[in-house]
Amino acid sequence: HDALPISQTVGLISSDKPTVPENSTFEVHYIDVGQADSALVICDDEAMLIDGGNVEDSSKIYAYLKKLDITHLEYIVATHAHEDHVGGLAGALNYASVDTVYCPTTSYDSNAFRDFVNYVNYRNGSITIPKAGDSFDLGNADVDILACNNYMDENNSSIVLTITYGDTSFLFTGDAEYETEQSLIYSGFDLSSTVLKVGHHGSDTSTSYLFLREIMPEYAVISVGKGNSYGHPTEAVLSRLRDADVKTYRTDMQGDIICKSDGKNVTFTTNRNATIN
């Protein structure tokens, strides 16, 4: 074969350039808050907290941020108003200041939600209700809001978002169920993701076959409490994930789960039971 023309050679070399700056870092901490949800996303020197577990998890979230010396959050996302998602955000706001707080609603009749709102006010902030199609940066990562539906049902009003870092992407679905999954499938948004945070703690009302087929994740993380009374994660969901050849991590079996990305590949570190799939 003849040697490639110079212009083509240059093209080949440039395509091998890293997709993110060399000194950039990205990690997601799926925090073990039992039968609840909380994930801390850190990209470069910026941080976003997605949900905060139950009220009883406030001290854990406070301690987690303190351990990592995160005194400021660029964003807090309360995916929806239920206590197992907003309860521990008071602990986060007690420790860290925040720029923007997203939630599908500004009012909900529970003490946990009122405490959350009070702490947002304490930080001189207000709640922003995002729209599907909104986007923002977190360091060198791009965050896209895919859904924030105003259903009567709180689970289906969940904020669904995707975080893209280089060639890797992370999908967070809150407690979104079939109705929201269906609307997302037809939304025109690209749902393909490297890592899926499984919807609704592995309930069989979420993670439908069709939705999973759109996402085609390599990995999944289920935030769930050991021996919970709901039977989460259900065998139906675990079976769907197995059928789709998704390597699955679970907070009830593995504790805090940390995923790091270099923009091309992701690696997982767990508190315990690293080999469970």
The helix content is 25-40%
Helix run count: 9
| End-to-end CA span | 46 Å
State mean pLDDT (0 to 100 scale): 91
Q: Extract low-pLDDT stretches.
A: 1-17
Q: How many beta-strand runs?
A: 15
- Tell me, briefly, the overall form: globular
Strand content: 25-35%
Instruction: Name the strands of the widest sheet in spatial order.
Output: 6-5-4-3-2-1-14-15
Largest pleated sheet: 8 strands, mixed
What class, by secondary structure content? alpha/beta
Taking all Cα atoms into account, the compactness measure Rg is 19 Å
Order of helix and strand elements from N to C terminus: HEEEHEHHEHEEEEEHEHEHEHEE
Task: Give the topology.
Blueprint: H1 6-15, E1 26-30, E2 39-43, E3 46-50, H2 58-67, E4 72-77, H3 83-86, H4 89-95, E5 97-102, H5 111-122, E6 127-128, E7 135-138, E8 141-148, E9 159-165, E10 168-172, H6 178-185, E11 195-197, H7 209-215, E12 219-222, H8 235-243, E13 247-250, H9 251-254, E14 257-261, E15 266-270
Parallel strand pairs: 3-4, 4-5, 5-6, 10-11, 11-12, 12-13
Antiparallel strand pairs: 1-2, 1-14, 2-3, 7-8, 8-9, 9-10, 14-15
Helix pairs in contact: 2-4, 4-5
Describe this structure in words.
This protein is α/β, with parallel strands linked by helices. The chain contains nine helices and 15 strands. An eight-stranded mixed beta sheet has the order 6-5-4-3-2-1-14-15, covered by helices on one side. It has a seven-stranded mixed beta sheet with strand order 7-8-9-10-11-12-13. The N terminus is likely disordered.
